[in-house]
Design a protein that fits this description.
Radius of gyration: 23 Å
Number of domains: 1
Number of strands: 8
Distance between the termini: 14 Å
Shape: elongated
Structural class: alpha+beta
């Protein structure tokens, strides 16, 4: 089963966990790596989700699905970065996944909250002349942006993975 198809079934997690309303989903790409030292194979899929609304507290969500296969066993971790405004509420410690008519709780692991800011300054000069003389000066524009990035992981249990695969085969 391809990692992109798994992503299709895991996306509702994001909606339930964090985003409200409609959103745009952008698939970046899927990469596959063979690790000869650990004798394993890793499949990584990246997704970017942006809210459709113009005014929302959530700026975007970056999600990385990492599937490691070793000795016939699968380990699936999902890494999130939720960028949100400083006026929004914090991320909950628990989310939900529904697959094959079963609901699963998804405890959030290793939550890290980072307060971020970016300042951009632009300076432009001008010169005006009229009958009174020549005037010169500078205009300064300062654009400051402040936001919060919440970073955390979710681990999918073997039962969740099986039910996601079953849901894929039944649709």
């Amino acid at each position: 089963m391809s990692a992109m198809k798994k992503v299709k079934y895991l996306i509702p997690v994001i909606g339930v966990l964090f985003l409200t309303g409609c959103s745009w989903m952008y698939y970046a790409r899927t990469q596959e790596f063979n690790d000869e030292f650990k004798d394993s194979r890793k499949v990584i899929s990246r997704v970017l989700i942006k809210p459709e609304e113009k005014r929302t507290e959530v700026n975007y969500a970056r999600i990385i699905f990492e599937r490691t296969i070793k000795n016939g066993q699968e380990d699936v971790k999902v890494y999130f970065v939720i960028s949100r405004s400083t006026t929004s509420f914090r991320i909950e410690d628990l989310g939900y996944l529904k697959a094959s008519d079963k609901s699963f709780e998804l405890p959030v692991d290793k939550m890290v909250t980072e307060f971020k800011s970016r300042t951009e300054t632009s300076v432009s000069s001008y010169s005006q002349s009229d009958s009174t003389g020549v005037r010169t000066g500078f205009d300064t524009d300062i654009d400051e942006r402040v936001w919060i990035d919440d970073k955390f992981t979710v681990t999918l249990s073997p039962e969740m993975i099986t039910d996601i695969k079953d849901a894929e085969h039944s649709s």
